[in-house]
Here is the input.
Amino acid sequence: EINYIHMKSYQHKLLSIAIIFSVFNSLKAQDFNSQNGYLITLDGDTIHGQVKMKQDLYGSVSFKSKNSVQYDNYSPSQLNAYYYEGGYYFESIKDEHQETSFFLRYFDGVLSLYEKSNFFYVRKDGGELIELVHEEDKSIDFKIIEDKRYVRTLVYLTADCPGVKSKIERAHYNASELTKAIKEYEFCVNPDAKLSDADISSTKFTLG
Here is the structure.
């Protein structure tokens, strides 16, 4: 009977060790699937911690503060923005349907550039968000027809600096070329601007 009790006690210890090991591995897996970052609350406070990587980064963010052991989910209406290492800054903005979503900010200036689900948007002087409308190129009678509506929108928004028109007209519908064209506009309207090394995708300008 004593051996039986010892055996049960030993089994309980093994089970406890297995549970602790499983929880530890689960927490480690969560950390491997996360990046250092921070939240900006509606009050403007910055909270540092870890952002969990997931498929949809536009509809919500899963975040664990430095003093917490678990992740909490935040909707765009609960935050001003969130950021994770690598220069990825997601800003909470109302779209044309007045629905609030997170938009990945590629450039922050007089004319700011954003992206959501592979569609690009701009906002001038912090105003209304405007979609850069674009559809895939079509082939008609063996000719490639390009959708240039996004170019016309940008030409209109940058009309106060006609010198950048040719650069905008050559820009293809991707983050790299759109960012480059919008930077040219920023330097035109703000010649004293200097690039900050703060982050990569959400480029910022400083004066002086």
Observations:
- Confidence is low (pLDDT under 50) at residues 13-30, 196-201, 203-208.
- The chain is about 30% helix and 35% strand.
- Residues 7 and 13 are 10 Å apart (CA to CA).
